[in-house]
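Justification of computing resources. Each target in the renewal requires a structure prediction run like the one illustrated here; the chain below, 154 residues long, is used simply to show the kind of job we budget for.
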Amino acid sequence: MGYVEQMAQQLKDIYHTKEPRELCECLDILVLPSELPEQVRGFYTNIQNRRIIYLNKRLSALEQRVVCAHELGHALLHTDMNAVFNARCTLFCAARYEHEADLFSAFLLVDPDEYAPELFEDFTAEQIAGQLQLPAELIRLRFERRKDNQPQDV
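Resulting structure tokens:
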């Protein structure tokens, strides 16, 4: 088990929830639904040791849940990073950090223990996503790593 998966699992074990907003409340991370440009779904920032997640209030409740889980990943894995500063003032390459946050949200929200995975064996990621009300990309991230037995270094 990689550190990203381990962190997601530890949170669920400690707080007995996988709901991103509940976890943010437990961890004293402020979640602010905000008027953001349409292309900005959300972002995480740390201002004077105050961790804040901004969510685009135009997103549906389901979309906000997924974006909140992703940004929670940033808050826990990349605590001192500031998305706004990095985007505007540096040549910082964010791909690795975005991938880690995506993995975190997949491990947090897609819990194979909550249903019988063998029932979904012949289903596509899109079909499973429809049943679980999650994006297909999260399903792919969660199960492709498991299926391929890739090293869990992330």
